[in-house]
Amino acid sequence: MPGKKASVESRREDIMGAAYDVAARQGLEALTLRSVAARADVSHGTVVFHFKRKGELVTSLVDRVVYATAVLRIPDAVARITRPSERMDALLRAEMDRLSTEPRHFRLLLDYWTIGLRNAAVRRKIRTALEQYRDGFLDIARGIVGDEVAPARRRGSLGPSGPPVMVAGLAAVAVSLIHGCALQAVIDPKGFDVEQHFHAAAQMLERLANDRAAASAAQAGD
């Protein structure tokens, strides 16, 4: 019996993998029990045994969609970078490349967010995943702007340059740059240049790092 149970669970996983592949390649509109059966190379009845209707299959895929698009990947080479601004720069490039190279995965996340507008469970899963993704940037952001804000900006010495840069705000901006890159890759895959997008983001981060270094030097001289 244990072997039979493992076989059933394995078959279900195979079906879900095939369903994700169909949805990512052709969109949720093309996702049917029969298209999944064909992709998984099983009978229609086998798919029906595990998923009675398309809606059940669509809902079951949300965790795979979230993992593919809203789980932060930090390569070992990036984690070893000691300077926070350089580490942020490298992580932005890695995530921009990852999500823009295969925009169909991010397109699927957008489709699921639309589903989440009327499905509270799906909406909660996506929102929680995106919050955790943003939180993954907090330590690097803290290294760039300080514990809460850049020191000189606490004292208002940067004057007209704007309000303090908060740690959470910088993390949110980093995510916006990555997701904006992925969205443009979805909308205009042929015309969008990820290198230009990354170059602009890198310049912004470098300017911020230089501002903080100048602020720290000014504070040390007081």
Task: Provide a descriptive summary of the structure in words.
This protein is an all-alpha fold and 222 residues long. The protein folds into two domains: 2-58, Homeodomain-like (Arc Repressor Mutant, subunit A, Orthogonal Bundle), CATH 1.10.10; 65-221, Tetracycline Repressor, domain 2. The chain contains 13 helices and no strands. The chain has helices at residues 2-26, 33-40, 44-50, 54-60, 62-69, 76-79, 84-101, 103-116, 120-135, 138-145, 151-154, 167-187, 194-221. α1 packs across α2, α2 (33-40) crosses α3 and α7 runs antiparallel to α13. The radius of gyration is 22 Å and the shape is elongated. It starts with a helix and ends with a helix.
SSE sequence, one letter per element: HHHHHHHHHHHHH
Summed up, the helix count is 13
**CATH class division of the largest domain:** Mainly Alpha
Please report the distance between the alpha carbons of the first and last residues: 75 Å
Tell me the major beta sheet: none
Annotated CATH topology of the largest domain? Tetracycline Repressor, domain 2
Unreliable segments (pLDDT under 50, ≥5 consecutive)?
Answer: 149-162
CATH architecture of the largest domain: Orthogonal Bundle
Question: How would you sum up this structure in a few lines?
Answer:
This protein is mainly alpha-helical and 222 residues long. The chain has two domains: 2-58, Homeodomain-like (Arc Repressor Mutant, subunit A, Orthogonal Bundle), CATH 1.10.10; 65-221, Tetracycline Repressor, domain 2 (Orthogonal Bundle).
